[in-house]
Amino acid sequence: MFLDYFALGVLCFVAVFLFYGIIAIHDIPYEISKKRNHPHQDAIHYAGWVSLFTLHALWPFLWIWATLWREDRGWGFTKIQNEQNELHHEILKLSEQVEHLTGKVAELEVMQAKHGTAPNVDTKSADTKKDNTGNNPQEDER
Asked: What residue spans carry the Polar residues bias annotation (predicted)?
């Protein structure tokens, strides 16, 4: 007889615990929106109650909706667009510079072909060349 009442008490406790647990879980997106000062707090709260009656089918979307807003940057889309515009302008400037430098290189190649000089492969000047001993032979001559 005692075990029947004990089982009934445990069953009631579990049912009440689950009931309040589900209600507490459904309110998480609203609490997030309240903390972030979301402009649609009330809509998120009401949609949370609707989601409670639809077995939390809307709940993940409410979570996303609540976390997208931040008070310091809003929805964040304008900042992303501004950054993309800045990057686009930088890329355009760089491509113009590359075209300009490509034209200069072509001019230099044409001038070099007219004068008939071979391209200078050695990038070091003669003053900085050193022999195997580490001495600069041209410095000794000076």
From this structure: 133-142
